[in-house]
TrEMBL record:
It comes from Pseudomonas aeruginosa. It is found in: Fimbrium. It holds the Pfam family Fimbrial. Residues 191-338 form the Fimbrial-type adhesion domain. InterPro entries: Adhesion_dom_fimbrial, Adhesion_dom_fimbrial_sf, Adhesion_dom_sf, Bact_Fimbrial_Adh_Pro. Keywords: Fimbrium, Signal. This is Fimbrial protein. GO terms for cellular component: pilus. Residues 1-21 form the signal peptide. Belongs to the fimbrial protein family. SUPFAM superfamilies: Bacterial adhesins (SSF49401). It comes from the Bacteria.
């Protein structure tokens, strides 16, 4: 197949040059003889054969796929005599130990090549010719590699790499884009956790205004969120995080839980405070499990076991004068495994 590239290249070089409009470079499809396209679009199948043991050694390949498509190459044409400098790169932090780029799933990296003989990206070259051949989609390859501890599942999607020409126009010109064809699920056999009781009723009891005025708060009432984790490979763990959300005022990012009691029978000048086991006061965040959710905190790393998140709550004063009455409040909690 490679010997056919030589006469095709000669024919291409003596053919009339493409009309360069807005861009200084163009990409031609179907072996350089097809229509001009914005860029070569290479996609990889979003199918991971099965779940995998997260305890496999670092460097283990957990996904290996060729690009979707055919073997027809594309050709990059640029104004002037030469194409010049070209870069081949993925996205995110690069780990030279495994030639991988970081993914949103901790402990999993990816690497790309457009030619097995040239090795993994990143690559760069100064191409001293008027037309640079880009191989067909099936010649591209992507691998997912274990790079460290894997404690949660996730999904990879979107663009993961580009080929860019640097010496034409006002900035880099992207001549190829590499992406997953949908969302690629990453399914390590880490423990999954279930909540033992999804609804907790915490009675803080009756508190006198005198006590609140003197001490600024009532006695603490302990409670816990209990979970049972199972289904992971032996020795596998998951990193557990939690966010509490103010049900009455979901936009609350402070550390005072808003009273839900309203009207003339509601208490005035008080709120509810929740503290963690380390005595830090809980601040509230959005009802979301995304990594880095505001006021989300790390609970711990657990295997196939049961665990509890100890908490305690009390009334605290927020303003004067105080008024006796009902003082109900509600919060939700959202677990996140990362």
């Amino acid at each position: 197949m490679k010997y056919l590239f030589i006469p095709a290249g000669v024919i291409f070089l003596i053919a009339p040059m493409a009309v360069f409009a807005a861009s200084e470079c163009v990409v031609r499809d179907r072996g350089g003889n097809g229509a001009i396209m914005p860029y070569q679009n290479v996609k990889f199948p979003a199918v991971l054969p099965s779940s995998f043991d997260p305890n496999v050694p670092d460097g283990t390949v957990i996904y290996d796929a060729a690009g979707i498509g055919d073997d027809y190459f594309a050709v990059v044409q640029c104004k002037g005599e030469y194409v010049g400098n070209i870069t081949y790169a993925g996205q995110g932090a690069f780990d030279g130990r495994t030639d991988t780029y970081a993914t949103p799933v901790a402990g999993v990296g990816y690497r790309i090549t457009h030619s097995a003989s040239l090795g993994w990206w990143p690559k760069s070259e100064n191409y001293q010719g008027p037309g640079r051949i880009l191989p067909g989609a099936i010649n591209y390859r992507v691998q997912l590699v274990k790079t460290g501890p894997i404690t949660a599942a996730g999904v990879l999607s979107g663009e993961i790499g580009t080929i860019q020409v640097l010496d034409h126009g006002m900035g880099p010109i992207t001549v190829a884009r590499v992406s997953f064809n949908g969302g690629l699920p990453i399914r390590p056999t880490v423990p999954s956790c279930t909540i033992q009781r999804k609804k907790l009723d915490i009675g803080l009891g009756e508190v006198s205004l005198v006590q609140l005025e003197r001490s600024g708060g009532s006695d603490y009432k302990p409670f816990s969120i209990d979970l049972s984790c199972s289904g992971g490979s032996t020795g596998a763990t998951t990193r557990m995080f939690i966010t509490l959300t103010d049900s009455t005022n979901p936009g609350n990012r402070g550390n005072r839980l808003t009273l839900s009691s309203k009207g003339s029978t509601a208490a005035k000048g008080v709120a509810v405070e929740i503290r963690r086991a380390d005595d830090s006061v809980v601040s509230f965040g959005p009802d979301s499990s995304v990594t880095g959710n505001p006021n989300q905190w790390f609970v711990g790393q657990f295997g196939n076991t049961s665990t509890s998140i100890p908490l305690r709550a009390r009334y605290v004063t927020t303003s004067s004068p105080l008024a006796a009455g009902q003082a109900n409040a509600a919060a939700t909690f959202t677990m996140s495994y990362q």
